[in-house]
Amino acid sequence: MAELLKGKPVADAISEGLAPRIAALKDSGITPKLAILRVGQREDDLSYERGALKRFDGLGLEVERILLAEDCTQEDLMDALNHVNADPTIHGCLLFRPLPEHLNEAAACSALDPAKDVDGVTEASLYGVFANQQIGFAPCTADACLKLLHHYGYDLQGAEVTVVGRSLVIGKPVAMMLLNGNATVRMTHTRTRDLDAACQAADILVVACGHAGTIGARAVRPNQVVVDVGINWDEEAQRLVGDVAFDEVEPLVGALTPVPGGVGSVTTAVLAEHVVRAAERTLAH
């Protein structure tokens, strides 16, 4: 039976550390505010949004929701981003991705003011991650993976880590952040030859490929730490599931994050921390 690496204790610890910082900002006349920009109604986006709203409400932070229809135009999207950029009371923006295929996602990400990019979508933020410099913000989910491992006491120094997934949302940035933590990182994906063997070789396995049940019993071994970043809607079961086949893997490994209740709940706390930090930066200018 694996130890379940639940996200709530991690998120609560982050939130506890934010309380005095938020109080100090409010004493200076600033209430940190997030703009949530969502196109359409993807179930995984809605789940994340509900968690973020609950987290921000509990911390006394503000949220403005900007909701666009699935068939909105590029102009509609750019107008929304321009509103975010121009409003001085908005300190950070969460742009849900992927966007519908008819929209130019790269143009949208480039349009966001890097100072308000609290989820690592702009080139400036991604450069900061890859160069290991304090520029912008790392993607929240990637940051959450590192914070979860740190909270539960897993040492990255020299650890063999396999990352399954290569997106700019999670896979690539989390690999760079693990590397910056002195882990030895192997990047893989669903087309990697003998993916199971690459996964078995790892001390820590981070799965973020976006396909439910990709990692099963043949890909893991005893004493591994498995971080399941996946959030997928299972139509048949009518519930959220991860990229790891939980029932197969849980009896075999040393530790495993549940879905839901794992990385996702940490991500909303990291998002809050990023918004607070963005608000603090406005005081410095």
Radius of gyration: 19 Å
Distance between the termini: 51 Å
Integer average pLDDT:
95
Spatial strand arrangement across the major sheet = 1-11-8-7-5-6
Our estimate of the beta-strand percent is: 15-25%
Secondary-structure element series: EHEHEHEHHHEHEHEEEEHEH
**Unreliable spans:** none
Q: What is the tally of helical segments?
A: 10
Helix content: 40-55%
Largest sheet: 6 strands, parallel
Which overall shape is indicated by the principal axes computed on the Cα atoms? globular
Q: Give the helix/strand class.
A: alpha/beta
Number of strands: 11
3D structure, described in words:
- 42% of the residues lie in helices and 16% in strands.
- It is built from 10 helices and 11 strands.
- Strands 1-11-8-7-5-6 form a 6-stranded parallel beta sheet. It has a 3-stranded parallel beta sheet with strand order 3-2-4, with helices on both faces. It has a two-stranded antiparallel sheet with strand order 9-10.
- Strand 5, helix 7 and strand 6 form a beta-alpha-beta unit.
Short summary:
By secondary structure, this protein is α/β, with parallel strands linked by helices. Helices cover 42% and strands 16% of the residues.
